[in-house]
Amino acid sequence: MIEPIKMNPCPFCEGPPCIDGYDQMTGEMLCDDHPHDEGSDQLYEAYVHCHDCGANGPRIDSLTLGIFEHRYDLSLMDVMRIAVERWNDRHNKARNCYDAGEKEGLNIWPRAEA
Questions:
Q1: What is the value of pTM for the model shown?
Q2: Cα(36)–Cα(74) distance, integer angstroms
Q3: Strand partners, 21
Q4: SS3 65
Q5: How many Å apart are CA 34 and CA 73, to the nearest integer?
Q6: Biggest distance spanned by C-alpha atoms of the chain
Q7: Phi and psi at residue 70, in whole multiples of 5°?
Q8: CA angle 100, 103, 105 (to 5 degrees)
Q9: Within the chain, which residues score under 50 in pLDDT?
């Protein structure tokens, strides 16, 4: 059994998150309980999106995870879990850059001439 993860609200509008999973080759939307055959080469893609404003989290796919992160033989549920984890973490990743820019007045538009 997979441990549940609470999805964070949208970082832009606080709207409710939704997750979709797909067969990466055909683009067909799949149910999260899609059976996984460990001997198959089926590739999956998943992403979380905001139901209200349509903001998307990063698209996570099993091919890229295999090439760059050496994670292989992932089920659709595995890929969806990673998509949720990245959705939940994405708004905090660059906060230190934003805060540094704030100190220098870089977060204002239009910026004053340097």
A1: 0.78
A2: 8
A3: 30, 46
A4: helix
A5: 14
A6: 60
A7: 55, 40
A8: 110
A9: none
